[in-house]
Give the backbone structure.
Amino acid sequence: MAATSVIPLYRVLWLEYAALAKYKMKTHKSGAKRYKISGSGKILHRQGWRGHLNTKKSGSRKRRLEGWTELSPANENKV
C-alpha cells in the first residue's frame, strides 16, 4: 500500500500567507522626509518661501511660515 502525504492545514495557510507577503512596496524616501502623519491621521508638511532672501521678509511673516501645517485636501491624493 502506497503512503500518501497529507499536508496539515496550518502549513497550507502559512505557504499562502508567505506567498502574499513576499513583495512589499518601497517607501519613496524623498516623500517620507517631506511629510509626516499626525496622531489623528492628518498629513503635515513644511511651508515654503523660507529658503533665501529672508532679510526683506518681516519677522512675523517668517514666524508664520515656520513649523508644520496641514496639507490641503486638494493635494492629499498626490501624496
Observations:
- The longest strand covers residues 43-46.
- The mean pLDDT is 87.
- The first helix runs from residue 9 to 20.
- The chain is about 30% helix and 15% strand.
